[in-house]
Specification:
Blueprint: H1 2-12, H2 19-52, H3 55-61, H4 66-100, H5 109-130, H6 137-154, H7 166-173, H8 176-196, H9 199-208, E1 214-215, E2 217-218, H10 221-254
Antiparallel strand pairs: 1-2
Length: 255
């Protein structure tokens, strides 16, 4: 509600016709990225709770392998993250359709679902790595609070990335969720960016609003997608490697 009341006019003013719908889509994109981060972390918190209450040991008595158990946590987090993104999109689109008459014409809903799936997977893997060594709910609660607070800034949802200090912008570039947000923004805003704004300001606006992240030059949709997939693969390898090491350590301790 604070965004609806203040942020849109503070960012753009009333200088560009159609900016209301443009910024509605900008907000939807950022909120979807935040949803993928926070919901997957929330689901994965069950893993820490099961460890603290020794429930995970009960699971192992059934004969399920550590790999399957951890995979179950990961897939559950990704699934819930995907579903919640779908729900948030439906609610926000309905709201802005009623309030601002937002219309998504010639929109690629297949690509939207694909980005949601990728975002859910990336965030699930990143959060799984984040809580690998968390063994109690108090520490988990502190981490969840921090992630919930900073995620909106790291994906450029609360304020445009271009407003952040240069050091903070570098942190954003190493945040997987920022690339997911950029994919959403390019999907929602690319056509409007070309229609509403003159060519001489498009690149600057795309960088300032986090529509495209910059590494030397602005990354296009395909490049952003490749970076996101690469980050997914990187964190998955890290997760599997550490989990394998921890499992081997536990097996040696039992021997």
């Amino acid at each position: 509600m604070l965004y609806v009341a203040f942020l849109k006019d503070n960012i753009m003013g009333d200088n560009f016709p159609g900016h209301t719908q443009f910024l509605d889509c900008w907000l939807i994109s950022g909120t979807l990225a935040i949803t993928g981060i926070t919901t997957t972390l929330s689901v994965l918190s069950q893993k820490t709770e099961d460890y603290e209450t020794k429930t995970s040991q009960d699971f192992t008595l059934t004969g399920i392998s550590s790999f399957k158990l951890n995979g179950g946590y990961l897939l559950s987090a990704a699934f819930v993250g995907f579903v919640m993104q779908m729900i948030v999109f439906a609610v926000m689109y309905l709201y802005f359709h009623l309030v601002d008459d937002l219309q998504l014409t010639d929109f690629n809903f297949g690509a939207l679902v694909g980005i949601m799936l990728l975002g859910a997977g990336v965030n699930a893997v990143v959060n799984a790595v984040l809580i690998l060594f968390v063994r109690n709910r108090s520490t988990l609660s502190a981490i969840s609070t921090i992630v919930g607070t900073v995620s909106g800034f790291l994906v450029g949802a609360y304020i445009p990335i271009g407003v952040l200090p240069e050091a903070a912008q570098w942190v954003v570039k190493f945040t997987p969720g920022a690339y997911v947000a950029a994919l959403f923004r390019q999907l929602f805003l690319k056509n409007d960016l070309e229609k509403l704004f003159p060519a001489n300001v498009r690149q600057e606006l795309a960088e300032q609003l986090g529509i495209q992240l910059k590494w030397g030059r602005l990354l296009d949709y395909g490049q952003t997608l490749l970076v996101t997939i690469g980050l997914f693969g990187l964190f998955l390898v890290i997760l599997v490697t550490i989990e394998a090491g921890l499992n081997a350590q536990r097996q040696r301790a039992k021997a």
